[in-house]
Amino acid sequence: MTVTKDTVLAALARIRMPSGRDLVAEDLVRALLIESDSRGDQVRFVLEAPTPEAARGMESVRAAAEAAVRALPGVAQVSVVLTAHGPAAKPAAPSLKIGGHPTPQAPGQTGPQRVAGIDRILAIASGKGGVGKSTVSSNLAVALARAGRRVGLLDADIYGPSQPRMMGVSGRPESPDGKTMIPLHAHGVTVMSIGLLLKEDEAVVWRGPMLMGALQQLLGQVAWGELDVLIVDLPPGTGDVQLTLCQRTHLTGAVVVSTPQDVALLDARRAIDMFAKLKTPVLGLIENMSSYICPSCGHEAHIFGHGGVRAEATKLGLPFLGEIPLSLDVRLAGDAGTPIAAGEGPIAEAYATLAQRLIDGGMA
Ligand SMILES: Nc1ncnc2c1ncn2[C@@H]1O[C@H](COP(=O)(O)OP(=O)(O)OP(=O)(O)O)[C@@H](O)[C@H]1O
Fold first, then answer.
1. Which residue windows does the record flag with biased composition (Low complexity) (predicted)?
2. CA nearest 109: which of 215, 221, 247?
3. What is the 3-state secondary structure (H, E, C) of 339-357?
4. 264 C-beta closer than 6 A to ligand 1
5. Where exactly does CATH 3.30.300.130 map onto the chain?
6. Does the CB atom of residue 291 touch ligand 1 within 6 A?
7. In terms of DSSP bridges, do strands 184-186 and 151-155 run parallel, antiparallel, or are they unpaired?
8. Are the C-beta atoms of residues 336 and 305 closer than 8 Å to each other?
């Protein structure tokens, strides 16, 4: 890591609000997180405005904050989310306005609840961003559908929803009754993404409880129909969304995706610890970007090392579910909206084997 929290805060302290005070003096910076990998440092933080109205007028401040941090040496990526305090919304009849507060559990309800019509829910998690969690989620969903399962895919990666692109779906979901959202369908999978409910390039203005409300709505207010399994693509890391999902919803379990690098494994271990604390079973680990097979000469190289995730699974006494090689075709397929598992070839077969393993184990 080359930048530190102090360096980032010092840069943010140079950004003035209309009041004349700076962002740090106004105490608006929350959840500052710095992650590093071979590309450089990735910095994420939240700017919490006092009211939704104030937040709406702060887009230029958000952009200036992003630019100031991006200009710091070593910073490769910056994500700044604008949120707002506001009067607490009353728990009300379901509304399609995404991002309301989560409804409290009904009296007498304790512990995680099942979602009607959905037999199993698998959360796909990763300790750090960029390890291919969303890619694995979409491909696994497609492979399970090809194996004859009724599959749903919920993109709960609130800060970076990528399933619309990866599954090739677009357009705002319809809601004929104003209460339930009709999901989209692609490659045999029923799909809903928080990304479909936001306008393109819209700054996300919501705060912690709203995220949880949004997740609850996506689970409960989408007409999923009867599903054998719902795959939930979680945001990376161990934040509020993961916590709420595990505490409120009965999960069959979590599958943790990691690359074989030590740093990724370190974060994966943190995610596994979190699930253990929340008593969510970890069904197994997947190694993504495992080996690289040169398309021209067939030579196999281990760019991020190889076998680290299998070794970690053995060490922790968890099942190792399989490995997916690093391949340009995987990325191109994801970018083009048709996951590689929808076609033929060795990687589609690897996903089919992975899917079959989950089906045989009663997990999907
Ligand atoms: N096996 C693979 N081979 C080549 N490229 C891959 C592979 N898996 C994922 N990628 C590419 O790596 C990038 C990151 O993948 P993806 O978005 O799935 O990661 P993620 O863990 O979900 O990230 P985030 O949590 O930040 O959303 C994408 O461009 C994707 O196409």
1. 99-112
2. 247
3. CHHHCCCHHHHHHHHHHHH
4. no
5. 5-84
6. no
7. unpaired
8. no
ipTM value, please give it: 0.97
Decide: 324 in ligand 1 pocket, CB within 6 A.
yes
Closest among 168, 161, 151 to 231, alpha carbons compared: 151
Segments of the chain assigned to CATH 3.40.50.300: 118-360
Residue-wise pLDDT for 241-291, tens only, equals: 888 889 889 999 999 999 998 777 888 999 999 999 889 999 999 999 988
290 lines ligand 1 (CB under 6 A): no
The whole-model pTM stands at 0.73
Please tell us whether the domain made up of 5-84 is placed in CATH 3.30.300.130.
Answer: yes
Ligand 1 centroid distance, CA of 113 (Å): 31
Rounded CA-CA distance 358/47 in Å is: 41
C-alpha 275 to ligand 1 mean position (Å)? 22
Closest residue to atom 5 of ligand 1, CA basis: 331
Is 137 known to sit in a ligand binding site? no
Phi-psi region of 40 (alpha: psi -120 to 50; beta: other; left: phi over 0): left
133 lines ligand 1 (CB under 6 A): yes
